[in-house]
Amino acid sequence: MDLLRSIENSFSSSYLEARNKFLTTAETNQLKIQNYKNSNLGALQEELSCDTAWLGPDDAKQILVTISGTHGVEGFCGSGCQIDWINSINIHSLPSNMAMLFIHAINPFGFSWCRRVTEEGCDLNRNYLDFSEPLPENRGHDELVDFFVPASLDSVTMNRAEIEIKRYRDKNGEKAFQRARKSGQYKHPHSMFFGGFEPTWARKTLENIIRDYSLPQADFVAVVDYHTGLGPFGYGEPISAHLPQTLGSEWVSRVYGESIGVPELGTSSSIPLHGTSRDLWDRKLHNQYSYIALEYGTYSQERSRAALREDHWLHNQRDFNWNSEEAQRIKKEIKNHYHPGSPDWLEMVLCRSRQVLRQATNALAGSHAN
Question: Where are the beta strands (DSSP E) in the chain?
Fold first, then answer.
């Protein structure tokens, strides 16, 4: 499909529109659909669901998996990329040993409510730990938690918060501040980057999808998980979820080239994180998979911090009016930060998505995964 026409047809302005587009596109292209219902309602009182679509033989040994909506509001980007790719591929030219699995809105609550977190208030990509083991400490977040998400947004409270944050940054340095802010924390449910006290619905759903589609029985699974918010505007960085010098790390470097970012080597826009889905994929698929987060840049991290602070504050009020002027202002800001939606940004997004998915498809089709 022509790129500019696809921009008009693939992206959506709400979770409900995105879900309907995805299901319609999958049905039109004769993909097999499954629904994983979430018991909550969306911001528009709509039904919530993580939906999956499968293309290819049931017993395929090489599988390409794409995931949208890990961080909720980032699903606007990932959903559009999935719809674009379904419409772009020739379903009759797929190799006989290969299949594609599209996981749409793994965190439908966050997608609908324009949040990065799940209905439990968790950052899903900090939630994949073994909760029977001691959880990571984040003393920097403990120290700054009341300033990351203050009890009030009034000017006096906000000024004090920024003074204390600056004091911490000056004393400990920018790397320590970013670790404190977003590496993951497991004590403060009301704050940002909270990893939870137990597995979330979204995590358990992904576990069920891995089981239902028998992914551990495949020879190789290549995962592309769409994210936004880090890096230069519009640039799509393939971030390796693998530790350096592992089989998965070697595969992603060979297939996606030198643009791969590795947080543990300091070559990525992301810092090393606790509780990412690597923990789950490692447990389930061992060395028989590759994983990248395709991370698209938007705006500055300071803008992100401000948008997240206000969104967490808003939901900490519990029963707020979605249609109020304040709520809509906050939601517009967080959505715009994680999905700018401008024509130039969307064109860069789809160009990079098509490149990365073509690279993965070619590698799997050529059995380079072995």
Answer: 32-41, 47-55, 62-67, 98-104, 220-233, 236-240, 289-297
Cα–Cα dist 124/133, whole Å: 18
Beta-carbon count within 10 A of 178 CB: 15
Residue 370: the pLDDT is 41
The DSSP bridge pattern shows strands 47-55 and 32-41 to be antiparallel
Do 270 and 239 meet the contact criterion of CB atoms below 8 Å apart? yes
Question: Number of helices and strands (H, E) in the chain?
Answer: 13, 7
Same domain, 160 and 263: no
CB 287 within 8 A of CB 250: no
175 and 207 together in one domain: no
Express each pLDDT in 61-106 by its tens digit. Answer: 999 999 999 999 999 999 999 999 999 987 777 888 899 999 999 9
- Asked if residue 189 is part of any domain, the answer here is no
272 found inside a domain: yes
- Inside any domain, residue 327: no
Distance CA 58, CA 213 (A): 8
Domain-embedded: residue 311: no
Q: Closest by alpha carbon to 277, among 105, 132, 128?
A: 128
Q: CA-based diameter of the chain, in Å?
A: 64
State whether 353 and 298 are in the same domain. Answer: yes
List the end-to-end C-alpha distance of the chain, in Å, as a whole number.
Answer: 32
Do residues 214 and 166 share a domain? no
Number of domains into which the chain is organized: 2
- Domain range enclosing 152: 139-182
- Per-residue pLDDT of 303-341, as tens digits, reads 999 999 999 999 999 889 999 999 999 999 999 999 999
